[in-house]
Design a protein that fits this description.
Blueprint: E1 3-10, H1 15-27, H2 34-55, E2 62-69, E3 74-81, H3 89-92, H4 109-116, E4 119-125, E5 129-137, H5 140-153
Antiparallel strand pairs: 1-2, 2-3, 3-5, 4-5
Helix pairs in contact: 1-2, 2-4
């Protein structure tokens, strides 16, 4: 079974919470643990915030979110903007790097995504936009029961 969803919304800060709820509603089908769900929502929040704040600095735009999973319980989420793009992705992914004004931005968005997801890939072109693709293997309740059994066996 392969399940897929697509969502497109205005690049307004208030839509970050909408994206969190939408990915949670989609991912819940995999029966993730509460920590796994929190990880997914946090990573999506960071990616969407980056698209809104950094992708569309000077103008309005749209953000796209796609997600899919199959039988292997691997959730893939992509966040895309058609904004200004990132000139140097490697530098942008370094801790504390930010194109923001410094007052409100810590420069930890990509680090947060990498911490909470199993893989993060960034594809960006200047003046064409950015796509952040994140993957997370969902152990879910099955994984929790297995871990508990292994702990008990010891």
């Amino acid at each position: 079974m392969q399940n897929h969803m697509e969502l497109r919304f205005s690049a307004y800060p208030q839509n970050e919470s909408f994206a969190r709820v939408a990915i949670a509603a989609f991912a819940v089908q995999l029966n993730p643990t509460l920590p796994e769900m929190a990880d997914i929502k946090t990573a999506v929040s960071e990616a969407v915030t980056n698209a809104i704040v950094h992708g569309y600095r000077e103008h309005d735009g749209m953000v796209s979110m796609t997600a899919d999973f199959g039988d292997r319980r691997l959730l893939t989420v992509s966040i895309h903007d058609d904004g200004c793009g990132i000139e140097d992705v490697e530098t942008a992914m370094q801790p504390f790097y930010s194109t923001g004004d410094g007052a409100e931005r810590s420069g930890m968005g990509f680090c947060v995504m990498q911490t909470f997801m199993d893989a993060v890939d960034v594809d960006s072109r200047v003046d064409q936009g950015t796509t952040v693709t994140m993957r997370k293997y969902i152990t879910g309740e099955v994984g929790l029961h297995r871990e508990r059994m292994l702990d008990e066996i010891g």
